[in-house]
Amino acid sequence: GLVAERLATVPGAFRLAARNPAHDLALGGEDMVFASVGGPAYMMDLAGGRREGRLSEMEDYLRLVQVLNVIQQEGGGPFEPMDLPAATRHLDIYSAQIRLLDKNWQTQTLGRARTMDGLEMAAIGMGQSLEDMTESPCLLGIINTNSPLQLDVPMAEGLMTLAAHGQVNVITPFTLAGAMAPVSLAGALVLQHAEALAGIVLTQVVRPGVPVMYGGFTSNVDMLTGSPAFGTPEYAKAAMASGQLARHVGVPFRSSNVTSANAVDAQAAYESQMAIWGAVMGGVHLLNHAAGWMHGGLTASFEKLLLDAEMLQMIQGVMEPVATDPAELALAAIAEVGPGGHFFGTQHTLDRYREAFHRPLLSDWSAHEAWKAAGSIGTAERAAALWPKVLAEYREPKLAEDRAEAL
């Protein structure tokens, strides 16, 4: 009875404000948001390999997120800047998110104090009071249950603090079938659903009507090694089922783009593609870690950020409906060309060719010429050459001087 009563106050859709209103987000309904990777312990690029990240590298990652239009939200700090003290590192992450982005960004939720820091700094960045922000949410935070059947103290504090201030919790059970959840997929989903409902109901107890999301993260472990497996058939099926469960209770749905791959290779691509399709076919509203995730979530990769952006653009293209108005049916162009002709020079083609088809990020002519000259060049090498060029396009969004000083 309590669950049904509290689910009735969950909004089916909501908006998240960004520093630049052009980047405000709609979550729920038919809208779908892609967020960059957030929270890994390490970073990697092709030149330096996997390593502990520094603040300067994390800031470059944020700049890439700002430039890549297919990424609509920053995912909570790309990786830990290990050159900074652990006790205050989150403040520098928040500061960088606010200064370097005018897109919406995710906050950290580990305990009340760290969550309040995010709330107060976000209010400064938005030029609002905490009370104003309560009525116009701009922050979203991930709450992981400590499966099975636990919501630990730091996560509970973060959840209640965000909810009390009108911000968005994404309740995400960490249910890995065979380890923290039953080995059967159905059993793992039962556990996920129970834990998700517990967290969702708690947000509505704290503040009825506050936006909240249902996070699905059910996957499996490799039963030979015990290590998590991602981008598997089980993960894709769980994502689709999670979308159905979220719709069943009327709560917007979050899923993730994930892979267990250790290199930006074919495994990284096909596991991510499996995960993305599972989420999209599940009706996802927020695709978390949509770009950049590697090593089962331990690492953020510069090259993978570009590879995933390429896949996300392809997904967007697939999701666009086929236009069938009379001009698009092209009957006049077909009659003009007639049997055995071609359409390169028709007015119908000339009017549309610039926007007609998806142009891959990682398949430009210079890469093709280099391939002919030097032999096969892999996707990772092409991405390694491209991301510095994308970074060079970055222009820092202006932040009012009084807000910068307050931060």
Overview of this structure, please?
Helix content is 45%, strand content 16%. The chain is an alpha/beta fold and 407 residues long. The strands form four sheets. An eight-stranded parallel sheet has the order 3-15-14-11-9-8-7-6. It has a four-stranded mixed sheet with strand order 5-4-17-16. It has a three-stranded mixed sheet with strand order 10-12-13. A hairpin with a 3-residue loop joins strand 4 and strand 5. The radius of gyration is 22 Å and the shape is globular. The N and C termini lie far apart (45 Å). The mean pLDDT is 95.
**How many alpha or pi helices?**
16
Mean pLDDT, all residues: 95
Largest sheet: 8 strands, parallel
Strand content: 15-25%
Radius of gyration: 22 Å
**Strand arrangement across the biggest beta sheet:** 3-15-14-11-9-8-7-6
The helix content is: 40-55%
User: Would you count the extended β strands for me?
Assistant: 17
The poorly predicted ranges are none
Distance between the termini: 45 Å
Structural class: alpha/beta
Q: What gross morphology would you assign? A: globular
Quick take:
The chain has 407 residues and is of the alpha/beta class. Helix content is 45%, strand content 16%.
Topology of helices and strands:
Elements lengths: L1 H6 L5 E4 L8 E4 L4 E4 L5 E4 L3 E4 L2 H13 L5 E2 L14 H12 L3 E4 L4 H15 L3 H6 L4 E6 L7 H12 L3 E6 L2 E2 L7 H22 L5 E4 L3 E3 L6 E2 L3 H17 L3 E4 L9 H16 L4 E6 L1 E2 L4 E3 H18 L6 H4 L1 H7 L9 H4 L14 H10 L4 H14 L8 H6 L1
Parallel strand pairs: 3-15, 4-17, 6-7, 7-8, 8-9, 9-11, 10-12, 11-14, 14-15
Antiparallel strand pairs: 1-2, 4-5, 12-13, 16-17
Helix pairs in contact: 2-3, 3-4, 4-6, 6-7, 8-9, 9-10, 10-15
